[in-house]
Amino acid sequence: MTISHRLDHYMNEHNIPFQIVHHSHSNSSLQSGVSAGVPLLNLAKGVVLEDHEGRHIMAVLPANNKISLSRLDDEFSASYHLVKERHIYQMFTDCDRGAVPPVGSPYHMATVCDEMLTHLDHVYLEAGDHETLIKLDQDAFLALINPIRILRFSSQIFH
Length: 159
Description:
two-stranded antiparallel sheet, aminoacyl-trna synthetase
């Protein structure tokens, strides 16, 4: 597998230009970034959240950051929690386990983006397997994730 079927279809349907970056097999987005020689700040990861009413949202943030659920709760007047891994596997059936693209639209969920990613010339993201990243320029990245809101909701884990 390279790019997930849904993601590939969505990018083609919306004419979103991208480049493929192959790397050695990895088990996490952080390993993917290191293997591909990509600065971790430029590597986006997605965290699937569920609110108090069962609605899902994809939170997209830099791979070396941690999410602030309280910030998102305040912004959206909600009470979010992480979706359990087994449910994520059911939502992203066209992806390898642990290689979920940080893109909500192809999977029928809204996306919120951390503003740190909007200041970069290029953003990389998991393509759906453990050996492929997608490289996007800023305009293509924002067109792909189609965020409902851009705000600061994460902080760096390490430097």
